[in-house]
Amino acid sequence: MYTENIKGYTITTKYELYEPQRESIRTILNCLEEGVSGMIESPTGTGKTLSILESVVAWINKNKQNKENKEVKVYVTTRTIKQAQQLINYFKTIRNAPKMSLLASRAHLCLNSEVRSSGNLDNACKKKNKDVNSKDKCKYYSIDKESRTSSMETTLPSVFSIEDLIHSGSECRTCPYYYTKDMQDKSTIVFAPYNYIINKSIVKAMGIDLNDSIIIVDEAHNLDDICRSSGSVDIERTVLDGILTKLTTETVNENIEVSEVFNCISIIKRIREYFDGIPKLLSEVPQDMKIYDINGKQECSIPQKSILSELFKIGITSDSIDKVFSDINGLIKNSVLDEFMERWLIQLETVFKLILTEGKQKDYGMVISEDKVSFILLRSAVQFDPIYKMARSVILLSGTLQPFPELVNELTYNSSSFKYFLSADHVISNNQLYTSTVGQYNGRVLTGTYKETKDPVYFQTISSIIMDIAHSLDRVGGVLCFVPNYNTITLLKSKLEKQLLLFTESTDNGIFEDNLRKYRSKCLNGKCVFLCVFRGKASEGINFKDHESRAVILVGIPYPNIRNHGIILKKQYNNQYMNGSGSKWYDQQAFRAVNQALGRCIRHKNDWGSIFMIDSRYTSAVKTLKISRWAISKFTNLIGKGMLQKEYIPFITQQKKTEHEENFIKNSKSAPEIISKKRNFPGNDLKRYFNR
Question: Does some domain include residue 11?
Answer without folding.
Answer: no
